[in-house]
Amino acid sequence: MKKIKYCCRNFKHGSKSVFKSLKQEFPDLKQKKKDCLGNCKLCSKQCMVLIGKTEIVVAPTAEVLYAKLKHRIG
Fold this sequence. Notes:
four-stranded mixed beta sheet, alpha+beta, globular, DUF1450
């Protein structure tokens, strides 16, 4: 899987717990925290991450985002 990028401003929506959980479960997975990913319309409303350079994954809650990412990892 490509690198997962997190917006630090999105951590208040719960993506911080997703970052920590994936880091524990998959220590070799490439993850990076960025101050801003430039997708503020999505980021301000729900949990989101950027996979690679173009693919955005969004979810209404951190639990759903975690499940989507875990399914993608395999």
